[in-house]
């Protein structure tokens, strides 16, 4: 298994509070990796260190090393905009821009300098197809994105992230605000995405992790308790705390 | 203590209380009816004094007034007659409705009866205009105790009769009444502006008035095209200068400023809104006007008092409106939009111009329109820097705006001149209405777009 992202001895502080404690993990390329754990355990924070969305938080201090394809992303010479282009992100609540569907998808390519109308059309179609949304919306590309249903909006956000051609997709509880049918569609989508992308998903839902993830990391109080193949974690947890969490006895 | 809600004893108590309220309302209503026959208004024309009751207002033809040059009959406006008659009919209706057990409708009737003195007050002021035409400068109208009692008594009666329905109903009605007060003032002002402004149009002719290029009060030539164009030029100029500065300031405050610095700049801008306009005028007179006069390329072309000076001072004055409305709407843009944009690899600057500002655009537009309203209506500061000659607008020439035209001449104008000034007020009012209606329309449209 080829490693895509490598995290070594990562500590993260919000002011005096230490949110991540000595995280170390190797995330494989073209697999789905799930972060599970109770609320406040640091899984979302850990996800955001990968595209440096924590930079915007005041008083946030990071030590340790995160590399993507061997490049240290916390190196002062790193271009954050290029990093974020490579590591797209989908948020917990669908957050399409208040623009047309087309402009939502074309936003990313445009800010990265693509002006050619034909090229943009192609990207929009391609991204919507990848996000399994094309057939539902191809007739209303010029309508406001806010008119879509919650599940469609979330797939639009995935399409928008795919439009800048990332190789990593970070998903922060992408289905927690959606109904079961929309959730199912997005899970199917993730299954397809793993062929081209390295997907990391934060989820509260252990069944979801069991259904879609190749590997799973269990976070507790800012530490990784266990990080292994999903099957072995759910069938044969090594740590007693993991077992208690996945069997629903706490958290 | 009993907790039964419908005990007979309790019902009796409420019944008793209600009877007291009802009785009091009826007595006060009867006093209102009585007030109809008591001395209501006192008119003083030069040295003749008339004290008339509301009954007389409704029945007599008018007052004979003797002026130095002319003398004549000053008739009582039709609306005055109607309102004083309403002033006696409405309390009677209220009392009857109370007996018919319709307390809410009775309350409405009482409130309306309380409003009648206000309508009398407004309509009788047209007598003042009529008298001025007879060349009598001194007239005064005093409203005597019965008219004031009508106002207070009507409201008290309304409260009492609605109160019989219970406290909750009373509270609701009070909210309604206060909202009627604000809406009512708007309606009254509108009606009055149109009533006062239209006679001169009939006399001068609408085209002549709006498109006439000369304003010469002594010669009786009233054309306000220079004033209209100067007002428009001043406003457009102020907006062109003020909007970019205002929006970028707001972006700085809402998006990029360090919180400590924002805490410093924000109150400074708020302070700008609180400075009285006459102080802006001082600043313009002492700084802007001399600066324009001595600015090398302009030297010998201008005395300094000019359209340019007005534009500059107005641009500063519209800043706080634009900044605060824009800042508020930028802050209302969900953080999720910015996160999404940054996560796609957009730079913070690109995020501001491509996501935050477009998302806030209806709010920003609303701010700009409010700024337009402020600029069109500004009077004092402009008087002090515009030069006030009714020229066609030129950037370095002296100008007179609609507002300053009224303010400069109102104190000594009489007759048609005075009415023409009212008509300028009407034109200004229409301008402001257009601005406000477009404001409402745009903010509504913005809301619809977000909800779509």
Automatic annotation (TrEMBL), chain A:
<dbReference type="InterPro" id="IPR003593">
    <property type="entry name" value="AAA+_ATPase"/>
</dbReference>
<dbReference type="Pfam" id="PF00005">
    <property type="entry name" value="ABC_tran"/>
</dbReference>
<dbReference type="InterPro" id="IPR003439">
    <property type="entry name" value="ABC_transporter-like_ATP-bd"/>
</dbReference>
<feature type="domain" description="ABC transporter">
    <location>
        <begin position="5"/>
        <end position="246"/>
    </location>
</feature>
<dbReference type="InterPro" id="IPR027417">
    <property type="entry name" value="P-loop_NTPase"/>
</dbReference>
<keyword id="KW-0813">Transport</keyword>
<dbReference type="GO" id="GO:0005524">
    <property type="term" value="F:ATP binding"/>
</dbReference>
<dbReference type="InterPro" id="IPR005670">
    <property type="entry name" value="PstB-like"/>
</dbReference>
<keyword id="KW-0547">Nucleotide-binding</keyword>
<dbReference type="InterPro" id="IPR017871">
    <property type="entry name" value="ABC_transporter-like_CS"/>
</dbReference>
<keyword id="KW-0067">ATP-binding</keyword>
<protein>
    <submittedName>
        <fullName>Phosphate ABC transporter ATP-binding protein</fullName>
    </submittedName>
</protein>
């Amino acid at each position: 298994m080829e490693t895509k992202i490598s995290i070594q001895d990562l500590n993260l502080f919000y002011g005096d509070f230490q949110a991540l404690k000595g995280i170390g993990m190797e995330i494989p390329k073209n697999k789905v990796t799930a972060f599970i754990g109770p609320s406040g355990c640091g899984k979302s924070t850990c996800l955001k260190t990968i595209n440096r969305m924590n930079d915007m938080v005041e008083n946030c201090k990071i030590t340790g090393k995160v590399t993507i394809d061997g490049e240290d992303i916390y190196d002062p010479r790193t271009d954050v905009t290029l990093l974020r282009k490579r590591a797209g992100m989908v948020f917990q609540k669908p957050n399409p821009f208040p623009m047309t569907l087309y402009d939502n998808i074309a936003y990313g390519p445009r800010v990265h300098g693509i002006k050619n109308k034909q090229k943009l059309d192609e990207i929009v179609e391609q991204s919507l197809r990848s996000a399994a949304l094309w057939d539902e919306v191809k007739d209303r590309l010029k309508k406001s994105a806010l008119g879509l249903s919650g599940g469609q909006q979330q797939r639009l956000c995935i399409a928008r992230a795919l439009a800048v051609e990332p190789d990593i997709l970070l998903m922060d509880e992408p289905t927690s605000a959606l109904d079961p049918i929309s959730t199912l569609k997005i899970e199917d989508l993730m299954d397809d995405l793993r062929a081209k992308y390295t997907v990391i998903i934060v989820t509260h839902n252990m069944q979801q992790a069991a259904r879609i993830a190749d590997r799973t990391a269990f976070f507790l109080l800012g530490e990784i308790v266990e990080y292994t193949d999903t099957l072995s974690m759910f069938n044969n947890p090594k740590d007693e705390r993991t077992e208690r969490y996945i069997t629903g006895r706490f958290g | 203590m009993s907790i039964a809600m419908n005990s007979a004893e309790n019902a009796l108590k409420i019944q008793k209380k209600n009877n007291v309220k009802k009785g009091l309302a009826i007595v006060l209503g009867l006093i209102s009816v009585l007030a109809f026959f008591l001395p209501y208004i006192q008119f003083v024309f030069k040295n003749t004094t008339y004290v008339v009751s509301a009954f007389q207002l409704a029945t007599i033809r008018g007052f004979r007034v003797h002026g130095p040059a002319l003398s004549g009959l000053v008739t009582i406006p039709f609306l005055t007659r109607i309102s004083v008659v309403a002033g006696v009919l409405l309390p009677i209706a209220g009392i009857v409705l109370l007996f018919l057990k319709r307390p809410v409708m009775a309350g409405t009737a009482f409130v309306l009866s309380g409003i009648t003195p206000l309508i009398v007050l407004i309509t009788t002021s047209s007598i003042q205009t009529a008298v001025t035409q007879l060349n009598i400068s001194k007239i005064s109208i005093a409203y005597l105790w019965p008219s004031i009692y009508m106002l207070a008594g009507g409201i008290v009666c309304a409260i009492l009769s609605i109160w019989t329905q219970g406290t909750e109903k009373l509270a609701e009605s009070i909210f309604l009444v206060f909202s009627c007060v604000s809406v009512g003032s708007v309606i009254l002002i509108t009606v009055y502006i149109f009533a006062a402004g239209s006679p001169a149009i009939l006399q001068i002719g609408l085209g002549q008035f709006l498109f006439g290029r000369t304003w010469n009060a002594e010669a009786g030539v009233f054309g306000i095209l220079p004033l209209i164009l100067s007002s428009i030029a001043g406003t457009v100029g102020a907006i062109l200068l003020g909007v970019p500065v205002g929006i970028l300031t707001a972006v700085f405050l809402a998006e990029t400023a360090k919180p400590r610095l924002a805490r410093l700049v924000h109150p400074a801008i708020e302070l700008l809104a609180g400075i009285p306009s006459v102080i802006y005028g001082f600043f313009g007179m002492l700084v802007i006007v001399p600066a324009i006069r001595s600015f090398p390329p302009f030297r010998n072309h201008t005395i300094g008092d000019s359209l340019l000076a007005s534009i500059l001072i107005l641009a500063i004055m519209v800043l706080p409106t634009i900044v605060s409305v824009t800042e508020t709407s930028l802050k209302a843009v969900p953080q999720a939009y910015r996160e999404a944009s940054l996560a796609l690899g957009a730079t913070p600057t690109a995020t501001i111009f491509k996501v935050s500002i477009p998302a806030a655009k209806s709010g920003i537009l609303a701010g700009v329109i409010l700024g337009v309203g402020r600029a069109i209506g500004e009077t004092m500061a402009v008087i002090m820097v515009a030069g006030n000659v009714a020229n066609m607008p030129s950037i370095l020439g002296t100008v007179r705006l609609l507002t300053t035209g009224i303010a400069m001449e109102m104190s000594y104008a009489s007759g048609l001149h005075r009415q023409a000034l009212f008509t300028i007020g009407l034109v200004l009012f229409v301008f402001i209405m257009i601005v406000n209606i477009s404001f409402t329309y745009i903010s509504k449209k913005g809301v619809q777009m977000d909800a779509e």
